[in-house]
């Protein structure tokens, strides 16, 4: 059963990564008015990066570069493994699984910083420091949203949080929770208005010096994190595996793809703002809203 679950999760991960690339390509084509790329475009790009010669800067930290890619991928896989596929089915079943996911979120700041540190190049370093400045307050926002979601279940176990949504999803019970959590997803996956690490204004930021297999590995890790985050959001706010007629794993897969589509759409449509203005938005608007969401969840739970 466990081996079949692992294989099923790997197949779903590969499929969702492919769909995310296709959605990204379609969105870019729609916005630019140039139409969608060929269906095999992502595969050709991956093959090009895989066979491309690896370029290095002067005195790079090679070990940290590999650790950042492997760490980012491991955090994404851990998040995916925490997601319950049924009442008693989860690859990592812990009574404190919400806490472990919160730790994964915080460690994303570390791996992104390592990725920017390792090439020993100015633009990559600026992207790393900028991400730390934005990423840390976003973690506070996530902490309030996660605690609010755990209150109705009176448990930090994701399995109990899903069970507590049997009558009403947290999306309805806490209307601010999912929108705030989606902003966290944009930050964790380095996307759209929260992409201050790998952004175009820094010529690629922490990825500016990445090439060949390293670039491919980092992009796959970002997409894997998008899948892990989307599955977690579907579990916490959309009832996870709960649903009529279809098997639980199919419901969680469909809800994950729905959240992923929302995140990709937001990353292409939401405007990006200067770092100072984003910091003001986080501290003066988003954090008070997340605290209000926590108070509302507490009052509903009483």
Describe this structure in words.
- Helix content is 70%, strand content 0%.
- The chain has 302 residues and is mainly α.
- The longest helix has 31 residues, at 2-32.
- It is globular.
- The N and C termini lie far apart (39 Å).
Task: Give the class from helix and strand content and strand pairing.
Answer: mainly alpha
Q: Given the structure, what is the number of helices?
A: 11
Overall geometry = globular
Whole-number radius of gyration?
19 Å
How much beta, percentage-wise? under 5%
Helix content: 55-70%
**What's the end-to-end separation, in Å?**
39 Å
Task: Describe the structure concisely for a colleague.
This protein is mostly helical and 302 residues long.
């Amino acid at each position: 059963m466990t081996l079949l679950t692992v294989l099923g999760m790997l197949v779903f991960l590969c499929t969702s990564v492919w769909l995310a690339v296709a959605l990204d390509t379609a969105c870019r084509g729609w916005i630019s008015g140039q139409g969608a790329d060929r269906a095999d475009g992502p595969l050709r790009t991956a093959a090009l990066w895989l066979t491309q010669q690896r370029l290095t800067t002067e005195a790079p930290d090679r070990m940290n570069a590999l650790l950042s890619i492997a760490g980012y991928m491991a955090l994404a896989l851990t998040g995916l493994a925490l997601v319950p596929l049924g009442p008693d089915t989860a690859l990592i079943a812990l009574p404190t699984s919400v806490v472990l996911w919160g730790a994964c979120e915080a460690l994303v700041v570390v791996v992104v910083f390592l990725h920017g540190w390792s090439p020993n190049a100015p633009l990559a370093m600026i992207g790393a420091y900028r991400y730390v400045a934005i990423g840390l307050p976003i973690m506070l926002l996530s902490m309030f949203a996660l605690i609010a979601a755990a209150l109705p279940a009176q448990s930090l176990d994701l399995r109990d949080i899903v069970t507590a949504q049997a009558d009403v999803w947290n999306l309805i019970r806490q209307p601010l929770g999912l929108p705030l959590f989606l902003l966290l997803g944009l930050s964790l996956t380095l996307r759209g208005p929260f992409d201050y690490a790998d952004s175009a204004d820094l010529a690629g930021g922490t990825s500016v010096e990445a090439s060949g297999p390293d670039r491919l590995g980092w992009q796959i890790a970002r997409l894997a994190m998008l899948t892990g985050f989307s599955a977690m959001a579907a579990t916490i706010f959309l009832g996870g595996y709960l649903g009529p007629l279809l098997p639980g794993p199919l419901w969680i897969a469909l809800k994950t793809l729905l959240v992923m589509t929302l995140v990709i759409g937001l990353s292409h449509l939401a405007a990006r703002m200067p770092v100072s203005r984003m910091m003001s938005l986080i501290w003066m608007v988003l954090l008070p809203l997340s605290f209000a969401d926590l108070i509302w969840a507490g009052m509903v739970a009483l």
